[in-house]
Design a protein that fits this description.
By secondary structure, the protein is of the alpha/beta class. The protein contains ten helices and ten strands. It has helices at residues 30-47, 72-76, 115-119, 132-142, 161-171, 193-201, 223-240, 259-275, 279-282, 288-291, and strands spanning 48-49, 52-53, 60-62, 83-86, 101-104, 125-127, 153-158, 180-185, 206-212, 248-253. The strands form four sheets. A four-stranded parallel β-sheet has the order 8-7-9-10, with helices on both faces. It has a two-stranded antiparallel sheet with strand order 1-2. The chain has a two-stranded antiparallel ribbon with strand order 3-6.
């Protein structure tokens, strides 16, 4: 069985409450198997409270009525939590309303990465602690005062490698531009194309997404790759509407190299100065299509 994360979650699996120890994971010496067994027992002990498993406070919730049955959440969830369930009442509905399968999410097994939320086309899936509206409000609040005279960089950063890197930056008193606004997300995969564009709508000059290192995402290895796709598409959209795609970028973080963060911030601040005011700052946003038609 594949370990969840080699450094920090060696005995955990994609399913909450299921651990893999001993030879079921990979060939081991006896002392290694004993150590892993102890780690697994500790994890299960923490899951139990008076002999019962309690529902986690954090997780994804699904509004079934809004689900359009696209199955993106089921296909892309790093932990395989969402399931597509047949809708028995679908046959009684009109062709326009008929959806044969809809998603079902077991919040108990959800690890709250937010990938499903960033991909959901109907906003049916939301993290119960970070809805779209909550994140957008945070974006808007962080961009208060942004403008051509004071360009602001929005930095979405994950709660794993990125937050560790930023902590080291603070511990070492390394300096970076105060015009950078930090917004935490559980995983870089939580950041959607819409979130990025919302930042520009509210006045951001540049946007960066800080994630775990390549092939080292703590969310089963795919959250950062999904985030990279979102960033790439956002860049294409910006180019298509007459903005500069270089205004958005993704950077991989590693706590042992805190200069990655300060260098990334410096790069995005430099781009903000070189590219100048955005169409939002100039009051020309939305007029590009009129000029080019």
């Amino acid at each position: 069985m594949k370990e969840l994360y080699g450094k920090l979650r060696r005995v955990e699996t994609r399913r909450r409450g299921v651990v893999a120890v001993g030879a079921v994971a990979h060939p081991q010496f006896v002392y290694e198997a004993v150590t892993d067994a102890q780690a697994g027992a500790l994890i299960l002990h923490k899951e139990l409270n008076n002999g019962k498993i309690e529902l986690l406070a954090r997780g994804a919730v699904l509004n079934v009525d809004d689900c359009v049955g696209c199955s993106l959440c089921a296909q892309q969830c790093p932990r395989g939590v969402p399931l597509m369930v047949e809708q028995t009442e679908a046959e009684t509905k009109s062709e326009e309303q008929k959806i044969l399968f809809k998603a079902k999410i077991d919040t108990l097994n959800c690890h709250a990465c937010g990938v499903c939320q960033s991909l959901c086309p109907s906003a049916a899936t939301q993290l119960n602690f970070l809805s779209n509206e909550q994140l957008w409000s945070e974006i808007e609040g962080n961009l208060e005062g942004a403008g051509p005279e004071y360009p602001i960089t929005i930095c979405f950063y994950c709660e794993e490698c990125s937050v560790s890197t930023i902590d080291i930056v603070g511990t070492r008193r390394m300096e970076y531009s105060p015009s950078t606004r930090l917004i935490p997300v559980p995983c870089a995969g939580r950041v959607s194309i819409v979130d990025i564009l919302k930042a520009f709508e509210h006045g951001a000059s540049t946007v960066m997404v800080a994630s775990c290192e390549t092939d080292r995402c703590h969310m089963a290895g795919t959250g950062n790759e999904i985030a990279q796709i979102q960033v790439d598409v956002a860049r294409e959209i910006l180019n298509a509407i007459g903005w500069q795609g270089e205004r958005v970028e993704m950077f991989r973080m590693f706590s042992a190299e805190p200069e990655r963060f300060t260098n990334a911030v410096g790069e995005m601040v430099r781009r903000a100065k070189e590219l100048g005011p955005t169409p939002v700052h100039l009051g020309t946003a939305g007029k590009w299509a009129e000029v080019h038609t």
